[in-house]
Amino acid sequence: GYRTMPTTMASKAMGRQMGGRRAARPHRAPRTVAVATPNKGGASSKKPVQPPSALAEVASEVKVASTEVDALADYVKARGGRRVIRKVLIANNGMAATKSILSMRRWCYLQLGDDKAVEFVAMASPEDLKANAEYIRLADDFVEVPSGSNKNNYANVDLIVDIAEKEGCDAVWPGWGHASENPKLPATLKARGIQFIGPTAPVMSVLGDKIAANILAQTAKVPSIPWSGDGLTADLTEEGTIPDEIFQKAMVTTADEAVAAAERIGYPVMLKASEGGGGKGIRMSDDEEALRGNFEQVKAEVPGSPMFMMQLCSQARHLEVQIVGDEHGNAVALNGRDCSTQRRFQKIFEEGPPTVAPREIFREMEKAAQRLTQNIGYIGAGTVEYLFNAATGNFFFLELNPRLQVEHPVTEGLTGVNLPSIQLQVAMGIPLDRIPDVRRLYARDEDGDDKIDFMEDEYVLPERHVLAARITAENPDEGFKPTSGSIERISFQSTPNVWGYFSVGANGGVHEFADSQFGHLFASGPTREDARKALILALKDVNVYGEVRTAVDYLVELASTDAFRENTIDTSWLDGLIAKKSVQVSQDPLLIVMCAAMARAKAHTKEVEAQFAESWKRGQLAACNDAAGLQSMLRFPVEMTFRDVAYTVDVTRKSQDSYSLKIRGASSQYGIV
Question: What is the pTM for the complete model shown?
Answer without folding.
Answer: 0.79
